Amino acid sequence: MKKILLLFSLITLVGCSQFSARKDQSQQITFKSSIPEGKYNFNLVSFKYPENYNDKINFLKNLNNTLENLNAIQKENLNLLITNEMDIDFNSLFSTGWLDKEILGMKIVEDLEYDEKIYLNKFNIGVPTEAGENQKLLNRQYFLLLQLTGNEALYNPEFLYTELDKSLLMEDVLLNRKSLIENINSIKKNFVYSDSISDDKKIIYIEEKNRVIETLTNKSVIFQNSNINSGFRVLPNSLVLFPGNENKKYLSTEDYEFTSSIVSVVNFEELQKITNTSASVSKLASWERKKRIENNTTESLELRFSNWEVK
């Protein structure tokens, strides 16, 4: 009878120990980039991105000036929420150097698509009467570039503009644009993309609080609004951080504590303070589960009780 009780106790202890180990290990993670164990905070900067061209130009100019004045550590820790419109414009800048309709003005006339010619011909401006169709389009391109740079009053309806005129007009813009592109590129690794543009992205933001995310298959880092949780949790394919912590259940592991916040910014000068209290989200991208440690509890318990006898 004593041996039966001993065997039952052994099975119970082994079962509980193995179950506890599995539960604990399911949330244990490590990082290829060797992030030391500890506490980290991630501020996600949210801007209201303008809709019209001139406001976008002012926004990008202010962003560029701000990035120029941030030190290397502050730029390293600037995590920027990317909307659909920002994603489109930034990709255009990275691939062509141009923004919005600028590319339409800088195209060689012979390369214009049918829809682009329709758009240019809508400009109700004077053009030389003796000019051919391509020349008229070229004049309208030049007017578009003047309009985009706020200099449409300089347009001369009797002048035959050339491709060189267009290039000279945009030369200064391109020189300033080079600095902007380099500065945006320097923080690109910390972009947190909107869920609607995140198909091939590793770090994304999901605003919907009750969205089911367990089915995501790529190894993502997800920031998701939640009414219940703060901190973070580990899913099979995703590391999920819950911004905010007021009156919420805080989740962490024995090795790491992650907090995060969405910070809406109006004044670019606020970025300095925000980045001083933040860590870089790109550090999270190298997360992986710790390798499961084989449980030797059965063997150790057997050894422990193998010679035990009640006298």
Can I get a quick summary?
By secondary structure, the chain is of the alpha/beta class. The protein has helices spanning 2-25, 53-69, 72-76, 84-96, 102-106, 114-120, 133-148, 163-187, 270-276, 297-305, and strands at residues 29-31, 38-47, 79-82, 191-194, 203-206, 220-224, 229-234, 238-242, 249-251, 256-265, 287-289. The chain has a nine-stranded mixed beta sheet with strand order 9-7-8-6-5-4-3-2-10.
Outline the structure in words.
The protein has 311 residues and is α/β, with parallel strands linked by helices. It has two domains: 2-28 and 298-305, no CATH class; 29-289, no CATH class. Helix content is 41%, strand content 18%. It has helices spanning 2-25, 53-69, 72-76, 84-96, 102-106, 114-120, 133-148, 163-187, 270-276, 297-305; strands at residues 29-31, 38-47, 79-82, 191-194, 203-206, 220-224, 229-234, 238-242, 249-251, 256-265, 287-289. It has a nine-stranded mixed sheet with strand order 9-7-8-6-5-4-3-2-10. β7 (229-234) and β8 form a beta hairpin. The two termini are 14 Å apart.
